[in-house]
Amino acid sequence: MAARPEKTFGARLRTALDERGPLCAGIDPHAALLAQWDLDDDVAGLERFAYTVVEALADRVAALKPQSAFFERYGSRGIAVLERVVDDARSAGAVVIMDAKRGDIGSTVAAYADAYVAPSSPLFSDALTASPYLGFGSLEPLYAMAEKNHAGVFVLGLTSNPEGSQVQGAIGASGRCVAEEIVTAAAARNAGASPMGAIGAVVGGTVETPGFDLAQLNGAFLVPGIGAQGATAADVKRIFGAGTRNVVPSSSREILRGGPSVAGLRDAAARTVEELRGILD
């Protein structure tokens, strides 16, 4: 059982970014990467892959983002590996962002909150990704639990998958698109927080420049797609402009291809941080 962190999520993330550089490294043990590392697609391969990434990066990158689905597919033994990944990574000083994109209503959301942002859970993470597309307010039990326990929530805002625009770009009764409504609602929740509020937003690094103000969020932006998906540090600057200080660029495959050696992973992460610092600082 973990203890509630003394500092807020926003404060911990700000410190990690400032001290370790602007990078969130993904832990995505999908079959293709296991094969690339000459590992079997089984729990033993999963363990070797995930624990190697933690050993290589948890003491030097700002954040690690395990993708829960790639652990869940092995059943209870995969979840046990994920529990250790979370604990070991947090113990080494990395901010852990659980990428599970949970979303529902009522008591189900409350149960997800208990699973991911309650210190009594073995999966207690610094933050959780979540889908607000049953309505921003549908995640209220998750927001409340996260804030109470100094954890964070990254709601999906503008994702880079082609299908996302069908919902995120739709214009509501207010005349604003759904993505803007989500960011505006999160900004209201974060009002007055320093250095950042608990509610962040996921904005893909390959999206078009938004037609609304992202800086209003007063929270962190988790930005996947850096590297293998084609997004660059220049894209981050284009999308966020003066608001890049609160950006958490995320790279998975580009860094994970540096394995299976610890040194290779560290070199890949260091190159990415250097590139990002050169444009974002």
Automatic annotation (TrEMBL):
Active site: K101 (proton donor)
Pathway(s) where this gene product acts: Pyrimidine metabolism; UMP biosynthesis via de novo pathway; UMP from orotate: step 2/2
Domain Orotidine 5'-phosphate decarboxylase: start-end pairs: 22-268
PROSITE patterns per UniProt: OMPDECASE (PS00156)
This protein's name: Orotidine 5'-phosphate decarboxylase
Name of the top EC class for this enzyme: lyase
Matches recorded under NCBIfam families: pyrF_sub2 (TIGR02127)
Family: Belongs to the OMP decarboxylase family. Type 2 subfamily.
SMART domains assigned: OMPdecase
Domain of life: Bacteria
PANTHER family (UniProt xref): OROTIDINE 5'-PHOSPHATE DECARBOXYLASE (PTHR43375)
Chemical reaction(s) catalysed: orotidine 5'-phosphate + H(+) = UMP + CO2
Lyase recorded as keyword: yes
